[in-house]
Amino acid sequence: MPGLIKAIEPFRFYTRLHLSELTGLRASTLGQLSDMIKQVSGSCIYHHTHRFLQQHQYLSPEPPNDFAYWVSKVLGEDELGERLASIDTVQFSTIRRLRDKIVATIEDYLKNNLSAKLKFAGKGEEFHFIKSVSFVLPTNYIAYNLREFTDIVKNITIDSIYFHIFESRLRLEKKTNDFSNWIETSIGDKELSDKISKLDPYTHTLEDLRKTIIKIVEQKLRD
Asked: Most buried of the four, 74, 118, 155, 163, by CB within 10 Å?
């Protein structure tokens, strides 16, 4: 049975604790916003594009990012806000590429909307840059085969699922999530790995992701 195939390397589950930290940096105009996005740390970009997912872990579908919200609600540039909100985060495997896309979207808009350069946020409405600080901690859970893997996924916290699905792929600049990587490299099942890898994590709640992953692996075990 596939579930009894012993992994070359066992899967160790991790979890993370998250803190938000003010950087002291802020922007009042679109030009300043673009310049700051170029300069701030990757953890800042991560925070402002994934904050909603971290704080509202049971909601879907994909929420807008903080940049889109500020541009629309504070500066009143709805068209640009829509462009920023429509950026498909899941297409980007690195923070660097996501950052470049956001900057390019803002700068392209400014080229064709000169009046937008003159808009300033009111006092107290500036965009404040915040960075995400994560502490990664090992859990006591270790899986040596697919059966153990599914049993553990049923019981780990959603913080652990978030780490292995989101943070490992984007913030740590891995091409795929930890679960898919382990199933392919240690279990040797690329077909199963691809099924999990192709899930769009931004259109599911974390609990939905848990249930979907379990369903996919258990179907494989039955087959």
From this structure: 163
